[in-house]
Amino acid sequence: MGVEAIFVDDDGVISDNERRPTEWRRVLGSFLADRLGGVPENWAVANKEVVQPLWDEMFSAPLGGRRFLEVHEPYLVRWVGAMCEAAGVRAHPDAEALALGWEARRVVTSSISVSFPFVAEAVGTLAELGIPLHTASGECSWDLEGYLQSAGVWRHFHLFFGIDLVNELKLVGTRYNEEIFRIAGVEPARALVVDDSPIALDLAAEARAATILVGPEHDGLPGALDRVLQAIGG
User: Fold this and answer.
1) pLDDT in tens, 13-37
2) 5-17+115-232: which CATH number, 3.30.465.10, 3.40.50.1000, 3.10.450.50, 3.40.50.11550?
3) What is this structure's pTM?
4) What is d(CA 7, CA 228) in angstroms, rounded to the nearest whole number?
5) Residue 181 half-sphere exposure, CB side, CA atoms within 13 Å?
6) Rounded-to-10 torsion of CA 52, 53, 54, 57
């Protein structure tokens, strides 16, 4: 099929999305208790309560003419504020909340290791083929770098897409895929997208890329590696 670039999702393909939320809340709870007081478990519960509704509210529609950071930084401020309210801790001014939000994400993403077993070997096998590897995630590039460093595979990836790099949301239309292919300099028909989301793969296919679904019956990328290799003739 002449694949010239492979775009790999993180959550559910490299990282185990069953384990990540618990680890996220554990590390975040300890971090916030250290910075703001209170009990780590209460912060963990607060995060669980606020994060998804807030994300859905602020990132459920196309960005339009807005830059990603124009939405993301207010999101961080509200995220910290909402957790403070839920945990019964005094809220901080916006500038302090923003700085704390950035620091919290750096600490958490670089501290947790929730990759599937043998994912480093699987990614290494793909890297040996000499085909550029990029991520194709609905997360942010700076979060991805932390996760993939913890997984031991960071050095194998070229570009960390990353909704912030393309200023497009992943599951809202085809623009995300069109932009990652354009920035990576690959024709869509020469791209292979590996993801655990049927919706994400439908959108990638609409953008003319080849796709491989890593379903729940697989152990992430390691469990689907033979199918990926077969698809690219490796």
Assistant:
1) 999 989 999 999 999 999 999 999 9
2) 3.40.50.1000
3) 0.91
4) 11
5) 23
6) 120
